[in-house]
Every structure is written in structure tokens, then in C-alpha cells.
Design goal:
Elements lengths: L19 H17 L8 H7 L6 H19 E2 L4 E2 L10 H10 L2 H10 L6 E3 L5 E3 H12 L16 H15 L10 H11 L14 H14 L6 H9 L1 E3 L2 E2 L10 H16 L5 H15 L23 H8 L12 H17 L3 E2 L2 E2 L25 H13 L16 E5 L4 E6 L4 E6 L19 H10 L16 E3 L7
Antiparallel strand pairs: 1-2, 3-4, 5-6, 7-8, 9-10, 10-11, 11-12
Helix pairs in contact: 4-7, 5-7, 5-15, 7-9, 9-11, 11-13, 12-13, 13-14, 13-15
Length: 497
């Protein structure tokens, strides 16, 4: 019996129902995008694919991946690194918001690298051999993005604003780089930066995983300044979404899907890092229970993906690394060894990147290469950088965890056959040792009405594609297969092809 969660009425969000004035604004922002857009940076695509095509030293692979990302970011960045116009399909927000994501979703990776080189260097050499001062980039970005007089200003936040989501990644990047960036700002500059972040205290969000975004910002502000505006009622609402076995429902009527990995548990991990006294028992216990069954999802060649935002696929191992870091699972008690988390992380990176998941300096908008059918309307050219969330944890804590030197342990499907249920989400998980395949079968439907043609990935009609090009706003069909009645998902991922 699934837990009943009290629902709230979903608000009418302007960017989901644009009027003529908004379409005019979207078109203007699209023209600005065309002005600042640069050619796709493909110089090192073949190299990074080759680096992950064969098993190498994980630390060097991750280092090269950061170099690859940073070099391309410098190419695309505008207005003192506060925005970056990446090539790709637009979101349903404005082109400027898409460009902000090109900064906000890259900075955590750069900050994580910076945190591990603290006191040594802030300079990273690109794959082209040219030095890049990462500390200086971050400092410029925060000062430009929070200055209303600067062309790179991130703007005034409003209810249900996509920039609320982005503010969490920016706050996390500021916290990770605090010794190099925050502590080198003068009092006026610090006040300017914090004033921008404090806007989230007055903004409404959609009633789902979005509650975690203001919480992240507020805990960072508290850690840096001592100002306590943490909205505990948001955190209590997140806990209401918890249904057991480590799983959260993404809103009262939302999905059980991989947002548990790269949304809920990733954010909870960082709340724990920023403030270790913030409900540590629940965070540790829920992560332990989640990883206990979720670890079985991983294979050396694919994952049984279900739900939305498939383009975040490289982040799937994030909660396993997080669990290993905060010692949720003790190997001697039958928990997850660090070596198994490492193998899940490495094989996931190698499988997807070796098949083309990184192009033009960014994760593609698809599973391997770009695939319009799999790009949600809220996803823009740089949204896929959430794919780096497992990498962020590895960079931030790899040395302390001894991740880079740890011996790998086999994945569950590499040990033998298995079958078990996850009662809280009404799912059955089956692993077959001989084929190295894992299948997840949901035992209830998300939708009542369906027919054979409705259970498929729809392609974008030509007229909608033309409209998307002209307005700069996503006009793609909704292709969440869970919502279409698909209940069986294999790690061979044939349901996407």
C-alpha cells in the first residue's frame, strides 16, 4: 500500500503558458543568443571519447574531463563568465536563462576541482595546454552575476523562477570555493553576493524536489554569514515525500524515478556537508536504505532508466559515492564497499562517454548522442550539466575517501542472479548474471488510459520545430515513458531506441 501524500494545487506558471508579451521577450532573447553564440567547440571530442573507451586510471580520466569542460566553458562564456551560450535545443524558459544554466551548472564542477587544489593552485591547464585561472573565473562570475549594473546580472528572482533552481548550484559552488573566492571578497562585495542569494527567501516554488533549492541556498548563507533564514517547513515537506526504502515521491502526485539519485539524495548529501548537524540521522538512514537496493541497478553497460531527465544519466552513481562518503554503509555489515561505488561510477562514465555522451564540451541532450525525443521542455543546451553531479562528489571528496586508489569490487549483477522487491514504490528488480542485465518492473501504472500507440516516444512535428527555432522556446512532445504506461525497464535501454 503506497503512502498517501497530501496534495497541493499546482500553480499556473507563466513560462508554461506564455502570452504575447512573453513570446516577444523570448524572441528578443533568442536574437541576443544568436549575436553571442559561438561555433560549437569540438576540438577535443574525439580525445575525451577515447579516454573513456578503455579502462584507465579513474583520477586521470576525471581530471581530463574537467579540463575538457573548462576549456569549452571559456570558449562559450560571456559577460565575465556569468553566462555561457552552449549549442543545443532551447528550453521553455528564455535563451538568457539557458545561458545562465551554462554558468550555474558548470561552476560546481570547477569549484569541486578548486577545493581539492586549495593552497596549491587555482590554475588548470586545458587540453590545449593553455592555463585557466579557475579561481579568477568564479570570482568574476559571482561579482558580475550579482551586480545589477553589470550586463551579466542574473536578475531579480520571482515565484516559480527557474533561477531559483540555478541559485542552489551557484550557492554550492560558492561554498565549495569559499576559501579562494568568498574569503577574498571585501565586505561590500560579500554583501552584494549575499543580497542576490537572499532573494530565494521570498519566492514560491513548485511543491516537489524544488524545496531543496532554497534550502541549499539558505544553509550556504548561514554557513558563510551566520544569518539563519532556513525554512524548515520546506525540509519537513521534503520528508513528507519520503515513502520508505530510501525513496521519495517527487511531489504528492509525482514520479518515483532517478530524481531520487541526482535530485533528492544529491541535495541531501550537500545539506549534510554544509551543516553536518542538519538532521543527520534521517539523511544517513534514508541514503543507506536507498543505496541498499539502488546499488543493484548498475551494470557495466547501461542502467534501467525510468522517468524524466534521462540526459542527466552520468549522475546516476551520485548517491552511491555520497553514501560511501558519509559512512552510511559499513562494508563489514553487508553494506556497500567503496570499491563497488567506484566501479558503478567508473563504468557509468566509461559506457556513456565512450559512446558519445560528451560533445562540443558538454553532456549531450540524450542518452548517448543528442536525441530530441528525450529532451524535456524544461531542459536547455546546458541543462545536461547536471550529469556531472556524481563527478562533483568524486572531485570534492575523492582524495579524502581514497577513491582514486581503492580497489574496485564487482557490481551485484557481476556476482550472480538476483530478484527482490522494493515495496514502497511497488517495483521488482531482477538481475541476470549471464547477460549482465538488470530489469525494473513497476507493479502499478502511472496512467489509466493507454493504447499501443500511446506507449512510444513521439517525434517533434516539423511545424513545432520551426516554431521552436523562431521563438527560441521549446515546443517538444512530453516523452516521460512512466507517464505513458511503460512499466518494464531494462539496463539494455531498448525502450529509448
Amino acid at each position: 500500500m503506497q503512502k498517501v501524500i497530501t496534495a497541493t494545487e499546482r500553480p499556473s506558471i507563466p513560462y508554461e503558458h506564455p502570452d504575447a508579451a512573453m513570446y516577444l521577450k523570448l524572441m528578443k532573447e533568442n536574437l541576443i543568443r544568436l549575436r553571442y553564440r559561438k561555433p560549437a567547440y569540438s576540438r577535443h571530442d574525439a580525445y575525451i571519447r577515447q579516454q573513456f573507451a578503455a579502462t584507465g586510471h579513474l583520477q586521470q580520466q576525471c581530471h581530463d574531463l574537467v579540463r575538457y569542460i573548462a576549456e569549452a566553458f571559456e570558449h562559450y562564456a560571456v559577460w565575465d563568465f556569468s553566462h555561457a551560450y552552449y549549442p543545443g535545443r532551447p528550453s521553455q524558459q528564455s535563451a538568457r536563462t539557458d545561458a545562465m544554466e551554462g554558468c550555474s551548472r558548470v561552476l560546481p564542477t570547477l569549484a569541486a576541482w578548486l577545493s581539492q587544489n586549495e593552497g596549491v593552485t587555482t590554475v588548470l591547464n586545458g587540453l590545449n595546454g593553455q592555463p585557466m585561472d579557475i579561481g579568477l573565473w568564479l570570482k568574476k562570475a559571482f561579482l558580475a552575476g550579482t551586480d545589477p549594473r553589470h550586463p551579466g546580472y542574473w536578475g531579480e528572482l520571482h515565484d516559480y523562477d527557474q533561477r531559483i533552481c540555478e541559485s542552489a548550484d551557484l550557492a554550492l559552488a560558492l561554498w565549495m570555493s569559499r576559501k579562494v573566492v568568498w574569503e577574498t571578497l571585501n565586505r561590500e562585495q560579500q554583501g552584494q553576493v549575499i543580497a542576490w542569494f537572499k532573494q530565494v527567501n521570498h519566492c514560491q516554488t513548485v511543491d516537489n524536489n524544488w524545496h531543496l533549492f532554497p534550502l541549499t541556498v539558505q544553509l550556504v548563507v548561514k554557513a558563510l554569514t551566520g544569518d539563519d533564514h532556513v525554512e524548515l517547513q520546506r525540509y519537513q515537506r521534503i520528508k513528507e515525500f519520503y515513502v520508505g526504502d530510501g525513496w521519495f515521491r517527487d511531489g504528492a502526485k509525482g514520479n518515483y524515478d532517478f530524481y531520487n539519485a541526482w535530485g533528492f539524495h544529491y541535495s541531501l548529501y550537500w545539506l549534510h556537508q554544509i551543516d553536518p548537524s542538519f538532521d543527520p540521522e534521517f539523511i544517513r538512514d534514508s541514503m543507506q536504505l536507498f543505496a541498499k537496493s539502488y546499488r543493484a541497478f548498475f551494470t557495466p553497460a547501461g542502467l534501467p532508466f525510468f522517468g524524466r531527465s534521462v540526459c542527466y544519466r552520468l549522475a546516476a552513481s551520485a548517491p552511491l559515492l555520497a553514501a560511501a562518503d558519509i559512512n552510511c554503509l559499513q562494508a563489514h555489515r553487508g553494506g556497500l564497499p567503496l570499491g563497488e561505488a567506484k566501479r558503478a561510477f567508473r563504468t557509468s562514465l566509461e559506457y556513456f562517454i565512450s559512446h558519445g555522451a560528451m560533445q562540443h564540451g558538454a553532456p549531450t541532450q540524450g542518452v548517448f548522442g543528442d536525441d530530441t525525443r528525450l529532451v524535456d521542455n524544461y531542459s536547455g543546451p546546458a541543462s545536461s550539466f547536471w550529469s556531472l553531479r556524481a563527478l562533483n562528489i568524486a572531485l570534492y571528496r575523492g582524495q579524502q575517501l581514497n577513491l582514486w586508489q581503492a580497489d574496485e569490487c564487482p557490481l551485484e549483477v557481476e556476482k550472480g542472479d538476483f530478484a527482490f522487491n522494493i515495496p514502497s514504490i511497488e517495483a521488482k528488480v531482477i538481475g541476470t548474471f549471464k547477460t549482465k542485465e538488470v530489469v525494473v518492473i513497476f507493479q502499478s501504472d502511472y496512467c489509466e488510459w493507454q493504447d499501443p500507440l500511446s506507449r512510444r516516444l513521439e517525434r517533434q512535428p516539423l511545424a513545432r520545430k520551426v516554431q521552436e527555432i523562431l521563438t527560441g522556446r521549446a515546443e517538444r512532445p512530453k516523452n516521460n515513458l512512466l507517464r505513458k504506461g511503460i512499466t518494464c525497464y531494462s539496463s539494455k535501454m531498448s525502450h529509448f531506441f
